[in-house]
Amino acid sequence: MLERIAELDAALATARGGGGEKYVKRHHSRGKLLPRERIELLLDRDSPFLEIAPVAGFQTDFPVGGSVVAGIGVVEGVECVIMANDPTVRGGAVNPVSLKKTQRVGEIALTNRLPMINLVESGGADLPTQADIFIPGGRVFRDLTRLSAAGIPTVSVVFGNATAGGAYVPGMSDYTIMIKDQAKVFLAGPPLVKMATGEVTDDESLGGASMHASTSGLADFLAVDERDGLRLARQCVRRLNWTKQGPAARNPFPEPPKYDPEELLGIPGADLKVPFDPREVLARVLDGSDFDEFKPGYGTALVTGFGELHGYPVGVIANARGVLFSEEAQKATQFIQLANAADTPLIFLQNTTGYMVGSEYEQRGIIKHGALMINAVSNSKVPHLTLNMGASYGAGNYGMCGRAYDPRFLFAWPNAKSAVMGPAQLAGVLSIVARQATEARGQEYDEESDAAMRMMVEQQIESQSGSLFLSGKLYDDGVIDPRDTRTVLGMCLSAIHSGTVKGAANYGVFRM
Ligand code: COA
Asked: How far is the CA of 386 from the centre of ligand 1 (A)?
């Protein structure tokens, strides 16, 4: 686990390095702050910041981090979603990874009812990849107006360039602050204006902060410098008169777990095939290590039960032994209904190789029972949090509320893997299919190339199943150190309670 954490730390260091030393130095030499410095000054002093998708873009053609820094932090006592362009990464231009991350962060603001603060300084669309971002990218501006329509305030502070589409971020925000002599907000810069209409003009008259604050009216506040801009953003949030809708934590001073969270490092083994008892994890995550297990003697490959985390009541569904059988699926279905009846958020702790296969299990209706569970997860209305603690394979990923099932937040431990099936199984399936096809054509199967194919496929699947690779693709909201599990889930639960927490109506409870 420590080796995996070292890999995570290296990826995080790359993300924090932004566009690299040269660009960071140049940015500082212009008297400007880096995105993380801006965020730090915006947040309440010494309050934590839960970064979302910090290693987005890992193992892709794009820089790690996606040229934006995003997360949840507290401003004037209000939990907000904050997003900051990183101008040291190709001028803060938006590439396909940045776009995916921006959209995910917008979704977090909307589903959890969190005010959104944009710290803008971007060269707009990354021009070489415009084909992948221009058309879908329009949603970002639409979504900003939808946040506003949903009663979720939006604030933007413009630190530098906000050209073309970028101009619509301040354009669509409820409150807009611009930094004097720095912000440049225009639909087209001087060169494009000259090309389009022949007018010869300059940055300041086209889109300078002073012009927007005094003439166009696009800027609501003119800040004298970056720090002043951040002060004004805090002032805007202070005046929102914001209150959370969800119930407050039942216990504001929860008892910490009785067992040392440091020990979480040693619970999963190096071999994912060896299951571990999730009660060992819960004992190091839940308040007072208290867990009231539901149906402990039935469907024992899945653990279900209630507890509290940082004072918030939670239902837990956790894999205990890799495979899910019919009993487990039915138990999960019943438990999800109970949690909905009690308006209690659910935490899914994944460590599953999927639903049981084989003729005996098919005949006993594993598809039907798996479908019950997937249906219950899909139509449950209480907030879901998902953590991949090890394995998340096959339809087990779906039943245990994987990314496609829209959990409010999804994190993975650095040891975790996810794929349609394991590398050896997948290579073996391909081999069997290829052998049958060759034999059907009356040809002889080449064993040597089969072995080479298997090896290649296994390596490919192995490298595409790891948590950093998947986080790079934004299939989760981040890879976390297991020791931070309680803190991360606690911050998410608190953020979730910014909105109402309500189970599905008229769901009833079907005994399974
Ligand atoms: N797409 C792709 N690459 C971009 C880019 C964009 N929109 N904007 C900047 N870059 C690249 C630059 O080519 C440069 O690459 P290099 O260092 O490898 O040569 C790097 O990012 C830094 O840009 P630079 O111009 O040196 O930084 P700056 O801080 O002095 O200026 C901008 C930043 C954003 C003001 C300036 O680059 C710019 O005007 N970009 C174009 C803006 C635009 O018109 N976008 C169209 C939006 S639809």
From this structure: 38
User: What percent of the chain has pLDDT above 70?
Assistant: 100
**CB 471, CB 479: distance < 8 Å:** yes
- For ligand 1, the distance from its centroid to the CA atom of residue 227, given in whole angstroms, is 24
Ligand 1 centroid from CA 175, angstroms? 26
Within-domain flag for 369: yes
State whether the beta carbon of 93 lies less than 6 angstroms from ligand 1.
yes
State both tokens at 131: 């084909």
Q: Where residue 379 sits, what CATH number does that domain have?
A: 3.90.226.10
Alpha helices in 342-413 (DSSP H): 359-363, 366-379, 396-399
Residue 445 and residue 411 share a domain: no
How far is it, in rounded angstroms, from Cα 98 to Cα 321? 37
Residues spanned by the domain of 229: 2-238
Does a structural domain hold residue 505?
no
Same domain, 272 and 370: yes
pTM of the model: 0.95
Please say if the pLDDT value at position 507 is more than 90. no
pLDDT of residue 166: 87
- Nearest atom (ligand 1) to Cα of 188: 44
Closest CA to 244 of 501, 491, 499: 499
User: How many domains is the chain built from?
Assistant: 3
Q: Is 163 in the pocket of ligand 1 (CB under 6 A)?
A: yes
Distance, CA of 427 to CA of 437 (rounded, Å): 15
